[in-house]
Amino acid sequence: MTNTLIDYYKAIENTSVQMLTAARMENWDEVVRLEGACAVLIEQLRHESRSQVLSADQRAEKNRIMLSILRHDAQIRSLAEPWLTSMEDMMPTHMPSLTLH
Asked: Which of 19, 22, 43, 97 is 20 to 30 Å from 75 at the Cα level?
């Protein structure tokens, strides 16, 4: 079975929902794993978009999906911000430069 472009958009949206759920549970390893799965889907979408065209109805659905994905992404970033800040706090403020001889 060949996936249509809209199937890829829906799969990406579903993955973004899973990422948001994992972020809410502070399961950052799962967020990263799902981000990788999303990257694969996006690459597949790019490949398929060379040979498929969305209908007018599908373009409207794509727009709805894209807005949903953007909302999920914003929520994930908001949840990740404190975690990222704590990771920055654990990093040394000055990294010695490396010199190669």
From this structure: 43
Instruction: Provide the CATH number for the domain around residue 59.
Output: 1.20.58.380
pLDDT (tens, 9 = 90+) of the chain, 101 residues, equals 568 999 999 999 999 999 999 999 999 999 999 999 999 999 999 999 999 999 999 999 999 999 999 999 999 999 988 766 666 666 666 555 545 54
In a domain, 99, yes or no: no
Domain count, the chain: 1
Give the global pTM: 0.79
- Is residue 48 in some structural domain? yes
Euclidean distance between CA atoms 7 and 52, whole angstroms = 12
